[in-house]
Each structure stands twice: as structure tokens, then as C-alpha cells.
Q: What sequence folds into this?
């Protein structure tokens, strides 16, 4: 594969963590999968790499020479105190923010001139901090929107309501329902998001990201505002997903991060301050210092029960 | 058949099963086709309108005709504003583009067939819509309103500038197309009286209006309608879903402009005079009033809003005249009343008429569902 040129790696980046859940261990009932609409996509090179990413907002350096990588089958945790630059990093990966320096590589090819709407076609999906559901669309329509890149019927067949358009819609709806089913939200298909409990909304948002069967999934605080039971389930879901895709997880709930991630990259003030397995990160003095320096120590790095802080 | 009807509200795997089973019926299968449902509705509406046109007084016929330049334009605007979240103060100007195109093309020695004139006028309006839409796609809220306002003010000005071809302040008089002999004989045979020019115009207008409503309702329930709403609700999430925001917005603008174009064609042949005074900002605002009253984004609401606007105007103008106002003063009563109605609707029923009814229904349904789950 590629040369390992990620600086602060410290040789700790081993992906094969003992409990690394693979396809054999999943036994959740709701794990019926959406049919893979992306047959010959996998070519072994499902590796995402960011190197030397620097982002400046005026005088503020939100990201400073950040490098990381993640590949299929692993979950990379990205943690750090509030304002560390986690969301900004995701925004760079998604093409919302152009980095001042640095480059991205996906499946062995550089991502240049990235536009957010091209992402879905590249097999990259992301959930947003908060929920980011479409308030005026029903739950199933929300998920169908996630399949936009897969819709085939063109404008003319929609305008004239040709059978092709109906058929296309039916296929999208079935795939959306299957995705909703896989997150246990199929019962809410006809409802509007605003009328649903927050954890259900989060699950719908996850279904919208998953419906495309992405190869790289970016989760920005998926457990924000989610209760304990749901969190365990979420952890299982994420572990399960990593069998089929590369996952990058931004999360403040340390017990979730520690139990789910294969490797963790820690950001503080835009800089990577540590990189390693959960066990290593837990003991890293620099990481502890960063979190302790964070006045409203909401990370719960020490005691793993932090309350959701969500804006 | 009832099976198929309930299924449209309850998306699930069973839809495949019904398709396969032969005895669940042709009708059920047909009703699942969007096209069949929508065409059926429009044909019903056409029959209803025809009955109406044949039974009401000539004055009402003229009002029903007048409706047909509002309905397409209002329907197009409600899709743009209600479903895609783009406001336009320039739709009156877009109507002007179509109206002037129609008037100029009809004013030839041997004019083109009228159907072709309609197509050309609508195409040109759509093209202007594409240009405006491309500029508008980057603008939001007040900036968008401002940009489209410039259009509303600028386009009638063009008519003054190109006085030679566009008639300047006087405007262009329009000789409306006449019914084809076949259609006239057919109508005379069916109704027992000869088809008046005014009634023919009303028929033409309704045929066009229903066609516009048919195509729009197809789009609204399709992937495109969903895409427009998604872009309206959350730009970031829409982009992540793979939607090209700019393209979606421009497309909505083009579709909406084309509808305004149909309205423009009708306004030319109904008023028989295409002059700058017809296409003032008041026209654009009247269209907005209609979509707000009816309920943003609702095609049924667009029809209701148009009805209210068209029937309320002479009513309050008369009221003003009876109340002792002179003609000029009375003419200003309508915009005033529209303004008041607009404020009342926004205060009392911000979802508009159709939106309020729909919301009440959904709330009841959700409550019932919640109760059932308990
Ligand atoms: N568009 C922007 N313009 C200017 N500054 C920004 C912008 N986006 C983010 N920032 C700043 O960059 C820094 C990193 O923000 P970011 O949202 O990436 O943090 P985060 O790690 O996601 O925090 P949180 O845990 O609170 O979500 C913050 O100081 C933030 O104020
Ligand atoms: Mg963040």
C-alpha cells in the first residue's frame, strides 16, 4: 500500500485490535442489510488519508498540519476538547472547507477540487453534528434523499410521470425502508422528523448516511443527546458497520469512543497531540493534560459517564 | 383497489406483492401510476370547468378566464417559494416577457400557429428564468428579493426603451387567436350555441392551466420535488446527500419561470393589450399574496389563492365605489385589502389555508398513532 508518512504515529497504529468485531460476531436482530448497490467498487484500496492539513480562519489556525488515515474494517476515533477542530476536519474531508495546505487521498487517488455534492458518488457519507434532517420531508423521504446520487429517472420522465419514474421511486423507497429497518426506525417512515424523539432522529440521520452503502463513513457526534441504552446499541451498530466500511468517529462520550474505536487521534487546538489505541490514549499524559486544561471538563475521559453537551 | 389507495400512504414491502398478484386488479395497478392518477384528476377538473363555463353568466366566464393567467403563474411561484425556498418579486416581469413575446408574434402578417407561439413564449421566459435563476442561486432572503425586484422594475422599462417594437407606454394591442373551425363546430353541436371568443379564451386558458398543474404535480411528487424541499430545508445536508444546490435551484427557477410564461401568454390574450402598466410590481406582489393565502408549496393552495385574489378584487373595488370613493381611489382598495389579508393570514394561519388544514390533519393523525402505541 502507501508509504506510512504520518508523523506522530509512534508505531502505535496497529489496526488489528483484539476484539475487532468482524462479520462473524454480529448477532443483532436488526442487522438485515440493504442490498449492496455498488457491486464492483471494492478494490482493496478503501483507504482514506489526510496529510498535512492546515486550515486557517483569519488569525485562527483551526487545523495545524493534521495527518491521519483510516481504512476499511477499522474505526478511527477523532477526539479533542470543544473547538479542537474536529468538525473542521470533517468539513475539509467533505469539501466544505478548502484547506490552506495539505492533501487528501481516497482509494489511492488524490481528492482535488472536492465539491460536497460529489461526495456521495465517491462512496463517502457523513452525519452532521446535531441532526440535519430535512424538517419538511417525511422520515422515509429523508432517507430517500440520501440516494439522490443513485436515482436514474431523469427530468423528463419525472415531468411526464412516466412509469420509469414511478419504478425508480419505488426502488428508492424500498432501499430507504430497508435502511430504516436496519437502524430500527422503519415504524416512523411516514412521520416528520420534528415530531420524533431526538434519539430516533439521530437514527434516521444515520440511516440516511448508510443508505448509499458508503465505503467511508464520517460520524460527527452520533451519540450527542442519546441515552445510555441507545448508546450501547449505537456502539454495536458502529462496530458492525466497520466490517464493510472505514469509519471516522468524532465523539465526546469516552466510553463509546474507547469501546468502539480501533485507533484514536487526539486533536487539541488544531494539532494532533496523540495517536494510538484506546488503551494508549487513556494513559497518554498529554491527552489527560489537554482534557484537564479544558475548564468545563465535559469529556469524561476520567469517568466515562459524560452528559451530552450539544449546541 | 382500496388496497392500493391505502398503500400510497403506507410505504412498505407489500407493494411488490400486490404488483405480482393478478386478481388484486388492473384498477389497483393503474391507480398506483402517478400519471394515471394525475391525468384522471385533471380530466375530472376539465369536465367540471366546462360545465361551469357553460352555465354561468358572461361576467363570470370572464372572471374564470382571468383566473387562468393567475393559476399557472401562482402555481409556478408556489413551487419556487414554497418548495425551494426562493422568493421572487420578479414573476410579474417574467409574465411580461411571455406576454410581449406572444403579442409581437401574433402581430405579424401571417402569424405562426398559436400552439407554436405558446411554446416559443414559454421557452423564452424559461430562458430568462434560467439567467435570473443562475444569478439568484447564490443569493438569499432580502438579497434575492432585491435582485428579483430589479427584474420587476427593469423589464417594463424595456418596453419603453424599445418603443418601436414593444409599443412603449401605449403597449401592443393583441388580436386573440380564434377557435379552430373543428372545435367551434364541436362546441356548437354539444352546447347548442355558438362559441364566443371570450368563452374560447377561457377554455384555452383552463386547458393550459390544467396542463401546467398536471406537469407540476408530477414534478412535485417526484424526486425533483423532494430535492427542492431538501435544498430548502438544509443546504449542508442536501449537499452531503449528493445534491448540486445550484443546479437544483436553477431548475426550480426555470420550471417556475416557464409556468409564469404560460400565465403571460394568457394575460396577453385575455386583456388584449400588453402594456407596461399591466406588469407593475403590484402584479408580482399579488402573485405572492395568492401563494401565501393558499399555503406555500401547495398546488391546491395556488388555485384557492388565485380564486381569492381574482374574486376579491372586483368585490372590494365595488365596495369602495359604493362607499363613495371615486374610480381611482376604489382601484386602490384592492391592494390595501390584499395587504390586510396577507397580514391576517400570516398572523392567524401562517401555513396558509391548505397548509393549516393539512397540519391539523397530521397533528390529529400523529396523536392517534401515539395513543395507539401506548
Ligand atoms: N467557518 C469558520 N470561521 C471561523 N472560525 C471557525 C469556522 N469554523 C470553525 N471555526 C473555529 O475553528 C475552531 C474549531 O472548530 P470546530 O467546530 O472544528 O471544533 P470541534 O472540535 O468540532 O468542536 P465541538 O466539539 O464543539 O464540536 C473553533 O475555534 C471554531 O470557532
Ligand atoms: Mg464539532
A:
Amino acid at each position: 500500500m502507501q508509504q506510512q508518512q504520518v508523523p506522530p504515529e509512534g508505531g502505535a497504529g496497529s489496526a488489528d485490535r483484539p476484539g475487532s468485531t468482524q462479520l462473524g460476531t454480529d448477532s443483532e436482530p436488526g442487522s438485515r442489510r440493504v442490498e449492496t448497490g455498488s457491486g464492483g467498487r471494492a478494490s482493496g484500496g478503501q483507504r482514506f488519508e489526510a496529510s498535512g492539513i492546515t486550515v486557517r480562519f483569519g488569525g485562527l489556525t483551526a487545523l495545524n498540519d493534521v495527518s491521519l488515515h483510516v481504512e476499511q474494517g477499522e474505526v478511527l476515533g477523532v477526539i479533542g476538547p470543544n473547538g479542537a477542530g474536529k468538525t473542521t476536519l470533517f468539513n475539509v474531508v467533505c469539501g466544505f472547507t478548502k484547506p490552506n495546505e495539505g492533501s487528501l487521498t481516497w482509494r489511492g487517488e488524490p481528492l482535488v477540487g472536492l465539491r460536497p455534492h460529489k461526495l456521495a458518488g465517491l462512496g463517502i457519507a457523513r452525519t452532521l453534528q446535531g441532526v440535519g434532517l430535512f424538517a419538511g420531508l417525511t422520515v422515509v423521504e429523508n432517507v430517500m434523499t440520501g440516494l439522490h446520487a443513485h436515482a436514474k429517472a431523469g427530468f423528463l420522465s419525472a415531468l411526464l410521470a412516466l412509469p420509469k419514474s414511478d419504478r425508480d421511486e419505488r426502488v428508492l423507497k424500498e432501499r430507504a425502508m430497508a435502511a430504516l429497518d436496519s437502524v430500527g426506525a422503519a415504524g416512523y417512515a411516514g412521520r416528520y422528523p420534528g415530531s420524533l424523539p431526538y434519539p430516533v432522529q439521530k437514527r434516521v440521520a444515520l440511516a440516511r448516511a448508510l443508505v448509499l452503502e458508503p465505503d467511508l463513513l464520517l460520524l460527527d457526534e452520533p451519540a450527542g443527546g442519546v441515552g445510555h441504552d441507545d448508546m450501547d446499541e449505537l456502539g454495536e451498530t458502529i462496530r458492525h458497520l466497520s466490517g464493510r466500511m472505514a469509519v471516522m468517529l468524532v465523539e465526546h462520550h469516552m466510553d463509546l469512543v474507547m469501546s468502539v474505536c480501533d485507533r484514536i487521534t487526539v486533536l487539541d487546538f488544531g494539532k494532533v497531540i496523540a495517536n494510538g489505541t484506546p488503551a494508549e490514549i487513556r494513559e497518554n499524559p498529554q491527552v489527560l493534560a489537554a482534557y484537564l486544561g479544558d475548564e468545563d471538563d465535559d469529556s469524561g475521559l476520567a469517568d466515562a459517564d459524560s452528559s451530552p453537551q450539544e449546541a | 383497489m382500496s388496497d392500493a389507495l391505502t398503500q400510497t400512504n403506507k410505504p412498505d414491502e407489500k407493494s411488490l406483492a400486490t404488483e405480482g398478484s393478478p386478481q388484486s386488479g388492473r384498477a389497483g395497478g393503474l391507480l398506483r401510476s402517478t400519471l394515471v392518477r394525475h391525468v384522471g384528476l385533471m380530466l375530472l377538473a376539465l369536465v367540471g370547468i366546462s360545465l361551469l363555463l357553460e352555465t354561468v353568466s358572461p361576467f363570470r366566464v370572464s372572471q374564470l378566464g382571468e383566473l387562468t393567467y393567475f393559476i399557472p403563474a401562482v402555481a409556478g411561484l408556489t413551487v419556487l417559494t414554497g418548495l425551494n425556498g426562493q422568493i421572487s418579486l420578479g414573476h410579474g416581469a417574467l409574465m411580461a416577457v411571455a406576454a410581449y413575446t406572444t403579442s409581437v408574434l401574433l402581430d405579424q402578417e401571417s402569424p405562426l400557429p398559436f400552439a407554436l407561439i405558446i411554446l416559443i413564449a414559454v421557452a423564452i421566459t424559461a430562458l430568462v428564468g434560467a439567467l435570473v435563476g443562475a444569478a439568484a442561486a447564490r443569493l438569499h432572503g432580502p438579497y434575492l428579493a432585491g435582485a428579483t425586484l430589479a427584474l420587476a422594475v427593469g423589464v417594463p422599462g424595456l418596453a419603453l426603451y424599445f418603443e418601436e417594437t414593444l409599443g412603449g407606454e401605449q403597449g401592443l394591442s393583441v388580436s386573440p387567436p380564434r377557435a379552430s373551425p373543428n372545435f367551434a363546430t364541436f362546441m356548437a353541436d354539444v352546447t347548442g350555441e355558438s362559441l364566443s371568443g371570450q368563452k374560447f379564451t377561457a377554455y384555452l386558458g383552463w386547458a393550459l392551466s390544467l396542463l401546467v398543474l398536471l406537469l407540476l404535480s408530477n414534478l412535485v411528487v417526484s424526486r425533483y420535488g423532494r430535492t427542492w424541499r431538501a435544498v430548502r430545508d438544509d443546504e449542508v445536508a442536501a449537499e452531503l446527500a449528493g445534491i448540486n444546490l445550484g443546479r437544483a435551484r436553477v431548475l426550480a427557477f426555470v420550471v417556475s419561470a416557464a409556468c409564469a410564461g404560460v400565465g403571460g401568454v394568457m394575460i396577453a390574450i385575455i386583456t388584449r393589450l400588453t402594456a407596461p402598466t399591466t406588469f407593475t410590481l403590484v402584479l408580482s406582489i399579488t402573485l405572492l399574496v395568492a401563494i401565501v393565502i393558499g399555503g406555500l408549496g401547495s398546488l391546491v393552495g395556488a388555485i384557492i389563492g388565485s380564486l381569492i385574489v381574482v374574486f376579491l378584487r372586483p368585490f372590494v373595488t365595488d365596495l369602495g365605489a359604493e362607499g363613495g370613493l371615486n374610480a381611482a381611489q376604489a382601484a386602490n382598495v384592492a391592494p390595501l385589502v390584499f395587504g390586510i389579508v396577507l397580514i391576517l393570514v400570516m398572523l392567524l394561519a401562517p401555513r396558509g389555508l391548505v397548509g393549516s388544514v393539512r397540519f391539523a390533519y397530521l397533528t390529529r393523525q400523529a396523536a392517534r398513532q401515539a395513543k395507539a402505541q401506548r
Remarks:
- The pocket of adenosine-5'-triphosphate (ligand 1) is lined by residues A 57, 60, 62, 80, 82-88, 129 (CB under 6 Å).
- The radius of gyration of chain A is 19 Å.
- Chain A touches chain B through 50 residues (CB under 8 Å).
